[in-house]
Write a structure and sequence with these properties.
Pathway: Lipid metabolism; sphingolipid metabolism; Sphingolipid metabolism. Belongs to the class-II pyridoxal-phosphate-dependent aminotransferase family. Its cofactor is pyridoxal 5'-phosphate. Keywords: Acyltransferase, Endoplasmic reticulum, Lipid metabolism, Membrane, Pyridoxal phosphate, Sphingolipid metabolism, Transferase, Transmembrane, Transmembrane helix. One of its GO terms (biological process) is sphingosine biosynthetic process. The protein is α/β, with parallel strands linked by helices. Among the domains are: 142 residues, Aspartate Aminotransferase, domain 1 (Alpha-Beta Complex), CATH 3.90.1150; 242 residues, Type I PLP-dependent aspartate aminotransferase-like (Major domain) (Aspartate Aminotransferase, domain 2, 3-Layer(aba) Sandwich). Helix content is 36%, strand content 18%. It is built from 17 helices and 16 strands. Strands 5-11-10-9-8-6-7 form a 7-stranded mixed sheet, sandwiched between helices. A 3-stranded antiparallel sheet has the order 1-2-12. Strands 3-4-14 form a 3-stranded mixed sheet, with helices on one face. A hairpin with a 5-residue loop joins strand 1 and strand 2. Helix 5 runs parallel beside helix 14.
């Protein structure tokens, strides 16, 4: 990996009391300093202001009390049903130890499975619903029913047609079946077939992979890039190649599981900082530099900061200018996961680096996936040529994993050329702009209705807070009755008091589709009493001045 940039001499001032007050009011508005951008995505060195608004409104106290009460009642009845199962009064549907193995170490931990047996099963029908069409703005759903309270399902043979898709990561609408759009993909399928049957280091590197990697590097404005067949493995299998024993990883507390797994597999020391909290991060950096490694007090071999561009469960955007300033100040490395942000934000879809008007050189390791905005599969690592050459030799994903199949590579090339305008049209730019319009419209309307939603105003990931466990199932079922497919998330994937529905806005959504969803949400919000927000968003919000973060070249 190349040496980190020189130390930034600018000062970082924190006004956390003011920030906390704004968070309580539901709006955090920050005027940050960013650099102007050239058309190719590389910083031109000019300085401009960018408004940064995020929402993390706290629910009223009674909502938290009722949420805990709901889990408490469910837990009590769960223990009652476990007692009945133990005495044969109720059928046991879960796996159990055999009588002959009662003295062995138990294979099934009852307490660990308690939530699954007694709470998750009650609302299990809201997940893993099989679809039978392309996951575009609308999809077809295979109808299924249960005769034993969600322990098993059977298909009826019917298909629920034209369900509005508010859950897929199809941000730019490239998950499509248009014959003309997929013409080049069809040609590559006929030429190369469906699989490679080899790894990149053996017989698995095709001219298509080389073409794609050059295109990705050009798109991001970096020296080189490497692509992988699986997005999750791009993180989990490459982080261990970059850091190891004697290194320190500073990870945001809300990082994706792939980042967490990669960090754990690396053998490096891991320390967690509060989500998007620069004071927490700087304290860890300062302590790492001052005290070094535990016991020996030797300096860390490397210090690397792991963050995401858009956090997929919160809808928040990384505070990249401040993090870059801190990483330069303390001579750390920065690993940026742009799985949800590449293609989705930035004037031309080049992610949070472009969104903040910064140079790609400010980030040591650029990672992203093709599974979302590009309607394909796989991921990439990009940056300096030395970094990519190192990974070509040492990455577990390159050494052991099967190469990306050619039709998928061609789909990514098609979508990326469209974004860059290399197809001779402005369709890609229009998709990026349409996504931004749809995102801001959808978020604004939800605020006006009185829902509590999390995240940045420019984030297409829109979490709507449900809180109470009983409302998770009721919300998803009633939305499906209105022909709207949604994703609901609860504990343990979220904090126990923050169950939510997560909407993913797409450029392919029409205004009519969004209005249909919003009207259904307005009606359902009244029926289920989900409009917890105590603050109405003004059309002319008060401006809050924050101390500016100075970035030096």
């Amino acid at each position: 990996m190349a040496n980190p940039s020189a130390v930034c001499n600018g000062h970082l001032h924190h006004h956390h009391q003011k920030q906390n007050n704004l968070l309580k009011s539901g709006i955090y508005k920050k005027n940050g300093i960013t650099k102007g951008m050239k058309k190719n995505g590389i910083s031109n060195g000019t300085v401009s202001k960018k408004t940064f608004i995020e929402h993390f409104e706290q629910a009223p106290m009674y909502v938290a009390v009722l949420t805990f009460l709901g889990f408490g009642v469910g837990t009590i009845f769960g223990y009652l049903r476990d007692f009945m199962r133990a005495w044969g009064l109720e059928k046991r549907n879960v796996a159990a130890e055999r009588e002959q193995q009662k003295d062995f170490v138990p294979l099934y931990q009852d307490f660990e499975n308690f939530y699954t047996r007694n709470l998750y099963m009650r609302i299990r029908d809201n997940w893993n619903r099989p679809i039978c069409s392309v996951p575009g703005p609308q999809f077809d759903l295979m109808e299924r029913v249960t005769d034993d309270y969600n322990w098993t399902f059977r298909f009826t043979g019917r298909t629920i047609k034209n369900v509005i898709n508010m859950g897929s990561y199809n941000y730019l609408g490239f998950a499509e079946t248009d014959v003309n759009a997929l013409k080049t993909v069809t040609i590559e399928l006929q030429k190369y077939g469906t699989g490679i049957c080899s790894t990149r280091q053996e017989m698995g590197t095709l001219d298509k992979h080389v073409e794609l990697e050059k295109l990705v590097a050009n798109f991001l404005g970096v020296e080189d890039a490497m692509v992988f067949g699986m997005g999750f493995a791009t993180n989990s299998m490459n982080i261990p190649a970059l850091v190891g024993k004697g290194c320190l990883i500073l990870s945001d507390e809300l990082n994706h599981t792939s980042l967490v797994l990669g960090a754990r597999l690396s053998g490096a020391t891991i320390r967690i900082f509060k989500h998007n909290n620069m004071q927490s991060l700087e304290k860890l950096l300062r302590d790492a530099v001052i005290y070094g490694q535990p016991r020996s007090r030797r300096a860390w071999r490397k210090i690397i900061i792991l963050v995401e561009g858009i956090y997929s469960m919160e809808g928040s955007i990384v505070r990249l200018p401040e993090i870059v300033s801190l990483k330069k100040k303390y001579k750390a490395y920065l690993y940026l996961d742009e799985a949800h942000s590449i293609g989705a934000v930035g004037a031309t879809g080049r992610g949070v680096v472009e969104y903040f008007g910064m140079s790609p050189d400010d980030v040591d390791v650029l990672m992203g996936t093709f599974t979302k905005s590009f309607g394909a599969a796989g991921g990439y690592i990009a940056g300096k040529k030395d970094l990519v050459d190192f990974l070509r030799t040492h990455s577990h994903s390159a050494v052991y994993a099967t190469s990306m199949c050619p039709p998928v590579a061609e789909q990514i090339i098609r979508a990326m050329k469209c974004l860059m305008g290399l197809d001779g049209t402005t369709q890609g730019l229009q998709r990026v702009r349409q996504l931004g319009k749809n995102t801001r419209y959808f978020r604004r309307r939800l605020h006006e209705m009185g829902f509590i939603i999390y995240g940045n105003d420019d984030s297409p990931v829109v979490p709507l807070l449900l809180y109470m466990p009983g409302k998770i199932g009721a919300f998803a079922r009633r939305m499906l009755e209105k022909n709207i497919g949604v994703v609901v998330v609860g504990f343990p994937a979220t904090p126990i008091t923050e169950s939510r529905a997560r909407f993913c806005v797409s450029a392919a959504h029409t205004r009519e589709m969004l209005d249909t969803v919003l009207n259904a949400l307005d009606e359902l919000g009244d029926f289920l009493h989900l409009k917890y927000s105590r603050y109405s968003k003004s059309s002319h919000p008060e401006l809050y001045e924050e101390s500016r973060l100075e970035l030096e070249d």
